[in-house]
Specification:
By secondary structure, the chain is mainly α. It folds into 2 domains: 1-87, Rna Polymerase Sigma Factor, Chain: A (Orthogonal Bundle), CATH 1.10.1740; 103-182, Winged helix-like DNA-binding domain superfamily/Winged helix DNA-binding domain (Arc Repressor Mutant, subunit A), CATH 1.10.10.10. It is built from 9 helices and 2 strands. Strands 1-2 form a two-stranded antiparallel ribbon.
């Protein structure tokens, strides 16, 4: 969302609400995939939005979504350090993370659900550096440039990580599908 900055007769809080709040779902989505825990993601987003409000004066216009996701990403990194957690040590709970879908064809619905469980499990296994660019590109539909802005990485590095993430995801899904077929 590109905005003109500043708009006359708007309070700082009103501008924050107009510019930053629309990206709350994207912020939560990124936080969830980085923390892999609902409560932790909510805590990170809350802390990130408090930081965003506190430092809203540093926002100089431009892509608000990229700015917010940068704050969320940095908050996640700070959270990891503070919590002293190993990002790869959180177990995947299939029951809690499986997708409930309704489809008239029960067999197709079950097959789709199984594919989603495999896909989510494979995304969970990606290193955080690959997972974050994959989530921003594929789920948040951000451009390479926006991801580069959020992560502070060179555009080539973003493309390289995304390519590697996709390849690992494809390999993992193929392996799990073959294992399930046995």
């Amino acid at each position: 969302m590109l905005v003109s900055w500043p708009k006359p007769a708007q309070s700082r809080l009103e501008m924050f609400e107009e510019i930053v709040l629309p990206h709350l779902n994207a912020a939560y989505n990124l936080a969830w995939w980085l923390t892999r825990n609902e409560q932790d993601a909510q805590d990170v987003v809350q802390e990130a939005y408090l930081r965003a409000l506190r430092f809203f004066d540093s926002y100089k216009g431009g892509d608000a979504k990229a700015w917010v996701l940068t704050v969320v990403r940095n908050t996640c990194r700070t959270w990891w350090q503070r919590e002293n957690r190993n990002a790869g040590a959180v177990p995947f709970d299939e029951a809690a993370h499986s997708v409930d879908t309704y489809a008239p064809n029960q067999e197709k619905s079950m097959a789709d659900g199984e594919k989603m469980v495999v896909l989510r499990g494979c995304i969970e296994m990606l290193p955080v550096d690959f997972r974050e660019v994959l989530i921003m590109r594929e789920l948040e539909e951000m451009s390479y440039r926006e991801i580069s802005d959020v992560t502070g990485l060179a555009l080539g590095t973003v493309m390289s990580r995304l390519s590697r993430a996709r390849k690992r995801l494809e390999e993992c899904a193929a392996k799990r599908t073959m294992e399930a077929a046995r």
